[in-house]
Design brief:
Chain lengths: 154, 506
């Protein structure tokens, strides 16, 4: 949204997209290789996966060719590495804490870490904000919706 | 028809159902106002909640978010020149200049009225079309369904903002993800890497990852706060008689365009709004007035996108085939609640079917009522900075996904899809077709396999049966049209080398 800026469609972005798609197709074909494909009349579980993965490989290569030939420029965004790493960390911490420690610690940590993704937040405001959101989360999930989750510990 | 509609009304007017209808449209209005949070994100966030509701209330709630957001989207467009939803992009063109000239209150009132009339026209079309469409759909066999799903996927890819081949590839990726789990016919596990995947990838994980997590990563570092420098004045609030008269036919044309494009697969509210605006401009006797706050240019697209938001439920409810990613989520919610969407829905679940349709009627009245008097509140919502909002959304995503199946794997997968949804945009791949492919994929495979089994591998069945042949013809016509217009436009812009990729999906 606000982070977009006008750059041209840089070379590495042209080279990676198509092959990544083809690689996805190839991996899919490799995994589904052993699934019996059957015949057209009696399709086995492998028929559609083989068809789809083959098409994906073909399209991936077609996209590579068209990307290399294009002279167009495109609106592209700056990678938000800080947000990417911290939001991922927040989700990972939630996953690791939810079962051993319970909902409240997991919620607090996830909110606090994801709040760090924005540079504007100071330490005190993070603690106050996270506590408030955790309280709201507890009210919503445990009190109002009555989810069967442990609040603290097992 | 009136009888069934009254049955629907009796369902909606039960206090607890009415509450969900109210809650849905209110939430839709709010997230429509907030730029950066879309209807699709909000619907994915609420998917897990619907497991605790009956199916009727679930769909009423989720649908309310969708058409409610069409009302809210206009507010940010008019006051900030920043569209709250993709379908209110054109609203900026006339709404913002009108607000700058001191008539913001008037612009908001006019859009609310146009939206309401457009929606009501859309609801009327849904009511009129429901029984004939469902009757027609009952004649559909496996070949027709195969072609219908295929047409839906092709149409959605061709009409999308970016390149058709990219969109179609993404739909294929969605189909591939939909294959994870046990094969419906033989029961063999496919792509099951861990036991947690034996039931397949959860729609909740996929939707929240692709649309929730990736949007948060994209916008989390925004620091600027939005300032509204337009004073909301209530002078000249009410339209004059001449202005009212000049609104009538644009609203009517907008509603008709919207109702038509909404019902087609692949085209939705955003395209309808663009079409309505373009038409008004072309037939206007004063085309120079556009861009300066010209009333027909404001009413027509608003009426169109709301009408389209309603009629997009026609294929979803009568055929069980979603036309876009939002409808795919609604279908997903039905399936997750144990209801099989399709032409039998109107017969087997009349309460649900007509209840949902009647809820559109009631919901739009609620929206009109909450829109105008609470305008001050909506304006204040606009000034909430995104960094106060997104950590709470992270929390909703984590707890929502986890609570669905008490599965840690689902939460990790959500993150994976979030990163995928974020990174794929660097390579100009849009996430919306993935979701559509994920929901349509199993339908495609099942019907294709059944067709081949029933007609012993004879592909000509697709062109010898009349309904199926019509669908094939539509698909081919669409393909030809797209390629011809692509070649024509390439010739035109070959020298100027102006690139364009749509900033909005959905």
């Amino acid at each position: 949204m606000q982070n977009t800026e006008r750059t041209d469609f840089s070379l590495w972005r042209r080279i990676v997209g198509g092959p990544a798609l083809a690689a996805f197709g190839a991996a899919m074909l490799a995994i589904s290789w052993s699934y019996p494909s059957g015949s057209v009349v009696q399709m086995g579980p492998g028929y559609m996966p083989h068809l789809v993965s083959g098409t994906l490989i073909f399209f991936g290569l077609a996209i590579l060719v068209s990307d290399l030939r294009t002279t167009e420029t495109f609106e592209s965004e700056q990678p938000q590495w800080r947000a990417l790493i911290l939001i991922s960390a927040a989700v990972i911490i939630f996953v690791t804490l939810i079962e051993p420690a319970g909902l409240v610690p997991a919620m607090f940590c996830a909110v606090a870490i994801s709040k760090l993704a924005n540079k504007q937040s100071g330490p005190l405001s993070i603690v106050i904000y996270s506590a408030a959101v955790t309280l709201a989360g507890w009210l919503l999930f445990i009190v109002a919706l009555g989810l069967p989750l442990s609040v603290f510990g097992r | 028809m009136a009888e069934q509609f009254l049955l629907g009304l009796s369902v909606v007017l039960q206090p607890h159902v009415l509450m969900y209808a109210f809650f849905g449209v209110l939430l839709g209005q709010v997230i429509g106002v907030l730029p950066g949070v879309g209807a699709i994100t909000a619907i994915s966030l609420l998917l897990p909640v619907t497991f605790y509701l009956d199916p009727t209330s679930s769909v009423i709630l989720l649908a309310g978010i969708y058409y409610g957001s069409q009302y809210g989207g206009a507010i940010a467009s008019i006051l900030l020149n920043l569209p709250g939803t993709p379908s209110s992009v054109v609203t900026c063109l006339e709404g913002y200049p009108l607000a700058q000239s001191g008539r913001a209150g008037f612009a908001l009132l006019v859009t609310a009225i146009s939206s309401f009339i457009g929606s009501m026209f859309g609801v009327l079309i849904v009511v009129l079309a429901a029984i004939p469409m469902a009757a027609l759909a009952l004649k559909f066999g496996a070949p027709e369904y195969t072609m219908l799903v295929a047409l839906g996927l092709v149409a959605a890819s061709l009409i999308s903002s970016g390149s058709p081949i990219r969109a179609f590839s993404m739909a294929l990726v969605g189909i591939a993800l939909g294959m994870v789990g046990s094969d419906a016919n033989t029961g063999q596990y496919r792509f099951v890497a861990t036991d947690a995947l034996a039931d397949g990838i959860s729609l909740v994980s996929l939707a929240m990852g692709l649309f929730g997590v990736s949007e948060i990563i994209r916008n989390a570092s925004n620091v600027e706060t939005r300032k509204i420098d337009i004073k909301l004045s209530y002078k000249d609030l009410l339209p004059t008689r001449a202005e009212l008269r000049s609104m009538v036919s644009p609203v009517g044309r907008g509603a008709s365009i919207g109702a038509f494009f909404g019902a087609l697969p692949g085209t939705g509210a955003a395209i309808a709004a663009f079409m309505a605006y373009a038409l008004e401009r072309r037939i206007s006797r004063t085309p120079k007035e556009f861009g300066k706050g010209h009333l027909p240019g404001l009413c027509a697209p608003e009426s169109a996108n709301n009408a389209a938001a309603q009629t997009s439920f026609i294929p979803t409810l009568t055929l069980g085939i979603p036309g876009d990613a939002v409808m795919a989520l609604i279908i997903g919610a039905l399936i997750l609640n144990g209801i099989i969407p399709g032409p039998r829905l109107i017969v087997d679940e009349p309460q649900l079917f007509w209840g949902v349709i009647a809820s559109f009627f009631v919901g739009n009245i609620i929206l009109l009522i909450i829109n105008i008097p609470l305008i001050g509140l909506w304006v204040r919502l606009l000034s909430i900075p995104y960094h106060r909002l997104y950590p709470a959304i992270v929390l909703l995503i984590c707890v929502g996904v986890y609570s669905h199946r008490s599965s840690v794997t689902d939460v990790v997968l959500t993150l994976v899809f979030g990163l995928l949804g974020y990174v794929m945009k660097w390579f100009r791949f849009e996430p919306a077709p993935v979701l559509l492919g994920f929901v349509l994929g199993p339908m495609l495979e099942e019907n294709f396999r059944r067709t081949m089994l029933l007609y012993s591998g004879d592909f000509t069945v697709f062109v010898t049966r009349p309904i199926s042949a019509t669908l094939v013809f539509c698909g081919v016509a669409l393909l030809v049209f797209t390629f011809v217009s692509a070649i024509v436009s390439r010739r035109k812009t070959l020298k100027s080398l102006k690139g364009h990729s749509g900033p909005f999906s959905v």
